Prior knowledge:
Helix content is 48%, strand content 14%. The protein is an alpha/beta fold and 298 residues long. The strands form two sheets. The protein has a six-stranded mixed β-sheet, sandwiched between helices. A two-stranded parallel ribbon has the order 4-5.
Amino acid sequence: MLRFLPGPLKGSLIVLIVILNTLVWMPILVVGALLKLAIPAPLVRKITTRLSIASATNWVSINSFMFVLFHRIEWDVTGLEGLSRDEWYLVNSNHQSWADIPIVQKVLNRKVPMLKFFLKQELIWVPFLGLCWWALDFPFMKRFSAEQIRKNPSLAGKDLETTRAACEKFKTTPVSVFNFLEGTRNTPEKHAKQESPFRNLLKPKAGGAAFVLGSMGEQMHTMLDITIIYPDGQNSAWDLVCGRIQKVRIHIRTIDIPKHFIGKDYANDEGFKREFQSWINDLWLEKDALIDELRQQL
C-alpha cells in the first residue's frame, strides 16, 4: 500500500493513474461511438452500448481502487441493501464539491446500473471525452437564459426536448439517471445569495427530475436519495485524492416514486407541477433534518 506517501504526491499519482486509465478505455468507447454513427441499426446500438457500459464500469472500478491503494478512508455507508443492476433508478444527492461524483460512483458501482449524468452541451466538444460521453448516451443539455428565451421564444422547451430524446435511449437498458437537484455546488456564498430556506441545502430544482419521469414511462419506479457528509470538513476533489478526507458518511434512502407522477407533462400541467414541486420540497425538508441528525452523531 502507498498510504505513507505525502498527500500532494499521492494526489498527483492518482490524477496520473486516472488519466492513464482513461486512455486505456477511451479507444473502446470511441470505436463504439463510430460504429453507432456508421451503422445506426438497433442491434449494433445495443451491442456497442453494452460494451461501452462494461468499459466505463471497469474504468470506475480502477479509479475506486485508488482509494484503497493510497488512502485509509473510513466508509460509513447505509442503505445499499436491495439494490439491483436490473432496475431503473432516479438518483439524486446533495452537492458540496466535485469529490461527490467519484464518491457516489465508488459506492454505487456494480450495485446499480451505470450512472448517467446530465452534461452541458459544450462538453460534447471536449476532445475524445465528448465522443466517449456520447457513446455512453450521456444526455447533453443546452441551457438558455431567460434573456435568450425572451429574445427568441422558440428556444423555450428545447432543453426539455433533449431530456426526452435522451430518456428514450434509456428505455431498453436499465440505467441510473443521476441529477444533482440543487443544480450547483452548495457554498456559503450561494446559500446566502439564494436565501435558501434550508439549513444545509440549496433550493432544489424539480424540473429535470420531473421530465425524466415524464419520459421514462413505466420503467422508473424508484428514487435513490443520497446524503453525503464529510466529517473532516474538507471536501474538495483535491482533498480527496490527497488523502485529507479520512471519513465519508453516506446515507442512501430508497424512495418509491408515486405512480401518478409517471408520464406527466411538467411543462404544461400546472397542477402536476405544483404537486411535484411540493413532493420534492418535502423530501428536501426531510433531507435537511437528516443532515443535522447525521452531523450530531459524529
